[in-house]
Specification:
Elements (H helix, E strand, L loop, with lengths): L4 E10 L2 E11 L4 E5 L6 H9 L6 E6 L8 H5 L1 E4 L11 H11 L5 H10 L13 H14 L4 E5 L7 H18 L2 E5 L3 H7 L2 E6 L2 E7 H6 L1 E7 L11 E7 L3 E7 L10 E4 L2 H12 L3 H4 L4 H4 L1
Parallel strand pairs: 3-7, 3-8, 5-6, 6-7
Antiparallel strand pairs: 1-2, 1-4, 8-9, 10-12, 10-13, 11-12
The structure holds adenosine-5'-triphosphate.
């Protein structure tokens, strides 16, 4: 089975600004992927490249086995909900469904009607009068009713209150399960990512910092806590992702092949938020702080 998204040496430049650099990814199908990273990391750029809305400056990207946006068949396989969940303000909810049916050969009217009634939307309501949460539900329903193999969301729940956000994510998961589709969503809300995603990509400073199955990432990352002098040099096979020190104590997030070896330190599991923050912080530090810990790095 083709990866849902495969990038090789992918890069994008806007004028002199690099938005994405040396991006290598191979995301398997059937995953709900959380794409996280600080403002300006390149998340929207990656998602727009995946939809074929923009073209790479360097390298290549394939989505479901072919170049994004290059044919009607390829376009029909991908549903995209952009950052501001755009809808047509003067058209009613029913008008949106009619337009969806006319524009998409694979349109599933029953699926669309089910989505609208599940979200409690009124077919006669003008989209311009919908709340942010209702607008997001409408945009999701339209993207999903074309029965794509991949749904892409750019910060879909960013403007929603916690209740609307909860409802939106529930609908998103139900839609993905109904369709048997894959999904990629960018988000700043790590709790949302933790709730719905089983695959993680951390982008920072225009580069992929880490990517993989969430369970595997959590199994291969730990916190070592102990005396600073004892943690100054790590055994072979442990990579320090991020370290914090007081005068005498150190706390180091490490990556390893499996469980870290026992030593003069306490070994703790970490959660998704700790993992993401460790990689985001590392990306923001000069090289001397990001290298595997050495005597020099901790001096
Ligand atoms: N059309 C554009 N023209 C020029 N620069 C752009 C354009 N789009 C994005 N950029 C720049 O590319 C970089 C990456 O932007 P991008 O929108 O992909 O980041 P992001 O991770 O989605 O950010 P946010 O979380 O704030 O939405 C930023 O420095 C941004 O200013």
């Amino acid at each position: 089975m083709n990866p849902v998204l495969e990038a090789k040496g992918l890069g994008k430049r806007y004028g002199r600004r690099r938005a994405l650099t040396d991006c290598d990814l191979s995301v398997p199908q059937g995953r709900v992927v959380g794409l996280v990273g600080p403002n300006g990391a390149g998340k929207s750029t990656l998602l727009q490249l995946a939809c074929g809305l923009i073209q790479p400056t360097w390298g290549s990207i394939d989505v479901l086995g072919s170049r994004p946006g290059t044919s009607a068949t390829q376009l029909a396989k991908v549903g995209f909900v952009a950052q501001d969940t755009p809808v047509y303000a003067t058209l009613s909810v029913a008008d949106h469904l009619r337009m969806g049916a006319r524009l998409n050969p694979g349109w599933d009217e029953q699926f669309a009607r089910r989505g609208i009634s599940r979200s409690g939307l009124d077919l006669d309501q003008k989209a311009g009068r919908l709340s942010g949460g209702q607008r997001a539900q409408l945009a999701l329903t339209i993207a999903a009713a074309k029965r794509p193999e991949l749904l892409i969301f750019d910060e879909p729940a960013a403007a929603l209150d916690p209740l609307a956000r909860h409802g939106f994510l529930e609908t998103l998961m139900e839609s993905v399960a109904d369709l048997g589709a894959s999904a990629i969503l960018s988000s700043h809300a790590l709790s949302d990512v933790e709730r719905v995603c089983d695959y993680l990509i951390v982008l920072a400073d225009s580069r992929v910092q880490v990517a993989g199955e969430v369970t595997q990432l959590l199994q291969s990352h730990h916190r070592l806590a102990g005396e600073r002098s004892r943690l100054a040099t790590l055994p072979h096979g442990l990579e320090a992702v991020h370290a914090e020190h007081t005068n005498r104590a150190s706390s180091v997030i490490v990556r390893s092949g499996g469980a870290p070896p026992p030593g003069p330190w306490k070994i703790e599991d970490i959660d998704l938020e700790t993992l993401v923050l460790a990689y985001m912080t590392r990306a923001g530090l000069p090289a001397a702080h990001t290298a595997p810990m050495t005597e020099e790095a901790t001096r």
